[in-house]
Specification:
196 residues; single chain; mainly alpha
Length: 196
């Protein structure tokens, strides 16, 4: 039973950490208003960038990643499984935060943060694949889709079966959250990186 309690605690703590809406908090603290009222209405770093404040967007990106990393590392000393659960639920908390009526970000930064906390080479692989795809395509959304699709395979190659399973579910959710981006990519209307 103690194992079940540990995993339940990891799920709750991970979700609560993940649900901290840094994009919303930072933009309000900077006097930029409610980030949900601009652009896509998303609380993630990409939409925060639309405020024109690169520093706030960068801080959002880092903090959204680190909250998942912190959740995983907090439970890693107890068991690897608890770390995976905490990182996974941090991802869910970011996308479905109870404080914002379950309307959060798209989860890219928090996905990376979860990987870094559970199996850091997989997190670095995600970042490398994202960068390579972005360099070739100039599409941020496509880069996230490709990197997330590769992540479960990277984790399987590392022998991280539970983490690979969690990543597979995270990838499915991330792709669902990017459904509009996918439609625009197919139509050739998706904005490219650096495009005004």
């Amino acid at each position: 039973m103690s194992g079940v309690i540990l995993l339940a605690g990891a799920a709750v703590a991970g979700y609560l950490l993940g649900s901290i809406p840094f994009g919303l908090l930072l933009t309000k603290a900077a006097g930029l208003g409610d980030v949900r009222d601009i652009g896509s209405g998303n609380i993630g770093a990409t939409n925060v960038l639309r405020t024109g404040r690169k520093d706030i967007a960068a801080a959002t990106l880092v903090l959204d990643a680190l909250k998942a990393t912190a959740a995983a590392l907090l439970f890693a000393p107890f068991s690897p499984d608890a770390a995976v659960v905490a990182g996974f639920f941090a991802f869910l908390g970011h996308i479905f935060p109870v404080w914002l009526k379950f309307k959060g970000g798209k989860g890219v930064a928090t996905y990376i943060g979860s990987l870094l906390g559970v199996a850091w080479p997989a997190g670095l692989a995600f970042a490398a694949i994202w960068l390579a795809t972005a360099k070739l395509s100039r599409y941020s959304s496509l880069s996230a889709l490709v990197a997330s699709a590769a992540s479960p395979l990277v984790l399987l190659a590392m022998g991280q079966k539970l983490a690979a399973g969690a990543a597979l579910v995270m990838t499915a959710i991330l792709w669902a959250k990017h459904s509009e981006n996918i439609a625009r990519l197919r139509a050739g209307t998706e904005g490219r990186i650096g495009q005004k």
